[in-house]
Amino acid sequence: MTITNNRPLVRPATTADAGPLIGVLAEAFHEGPVADWLIPDPDERRTVYHRYFTDAFHHGLAHGQVHTTSDQTAVAIWYPRLEPTPTDVHERLGTLERIAGAYAPKFVLLEATFDALQPDEPHHYLAYLAVDPTRQNRGIGAALLAEHHRRLDDLGLPAYLEASNMRNRRLYLRLGYTAGPTIVLPTEGPVIWRMWRGAPTSTGSRTSFPHTRPRRRSL
């Protein structure tokens, strides 16, 4: 599908896109309150993030839906969550220890917190949206999400995500999301905004943020 108004072509990503899109993910998430909390040293963060987002990109291709633009300057990784999806906690712990080394405990805490607070209602989960930092603020991220949002509306499904800063929160509010209860990460961690784009209703409104019962997750 071609997006007009000089917006890019949006298409499914493939393994051939790995190099550029892993770079986009690592660079787009390199700065910010979550990044500072996870790995204070920016040089070490760059090394670990490249490994982390290599894993995230290939996991998205294998288990979710990954979209990119014709110029490979943006990427979105979605996961259908049509029923509760258990995580192999021990396998994930081993993966994060290989990826993050001494920083693994905070990565484990971050992922476990997000996983425990996933809504039970069937939805699609936007795990990552990244735009090349040199191309941000041009509507590329919104364009990348537009087609998937339309598909979700046709299916009558909501979308869910976590916004890690106020700028991203404002973007998602403009795209029809509403803010739910926040997450405050421990050990002086940042605030995370849980966001929900409800399914369309017969009255023209959208379903409200669902009640979430935290799921227990033990190692």
Automatic annotation (TrEMBL):
Sequence ranges assigned to domain N-acetyltransferase in this UniProt record: 8-198
Matches recorded under InterPro entries: Acyl_CoA_acyltransferase, GNAT_dom, Trichothecene_AcTrans
Protein known as: N-acetyltransferase
Organism listed in the record: Micromonospora andamanensis
Lineage summary: Bacteria, Bacillati, Actinomycetota, Actinomycetes, Micromonosporales
